[in-house]
Specification:
By secondary structure, this protein is of the alpha+beta class. It contains three helices and five strands. The strands form two sheets. A three-stranded antiparallel beta sheet has the order 1-2-5. It has a two-stranded antiparallel ribbon with strand order 3-4. A hairpin with a 6-residue loop joins β3 and β4. The two termini are 20 Å apart. The mean pLDDT is 94.
Length: 90
């Protein structure tokens, strides 16, 4: 499912216009982004948790030449689904 399909699903479920559904999806996604950025974590019961993840600096290899190269430390976002959701998949 991509964003357009998500907007269509929201539009159908809420029986609203595509414009209103897209605005709703955008507001929710922006709130998750801002929550992770400000609090370091956003948790939705029964769905899952987004959190900041730190990657340490490390030495890697250039795939074309095989030469060692330094990879800088970085911050990323991870998602862990709720136990109930994971259990429903198995």
């Amino acid at each position: 499912m991509n964003k357009r399909e998500l907007v269509e699903a929201v539009c159908t479920q809420l029986e609203t216009t595509k414009t209103a559904a897209e605005e709703t999806v955008n507001v929710v996604l922006k709130a998750v982004q801002e929550g992770v950025q400000s609090d370091g974590q956003v948790s939705i019961a029964g769905f899952g948790t987004w959190n900041l993840r730190q990657r340490a600096a490390r030495t890697g290899r250039n795939p074309q030449t095989g030469a060692p190269m330094d990879i800088k430390a970085s911050t990323s976002v991870g998602f862990k689904p709720a136990k109930a959701w994971k259990d429903s998949l198995n």
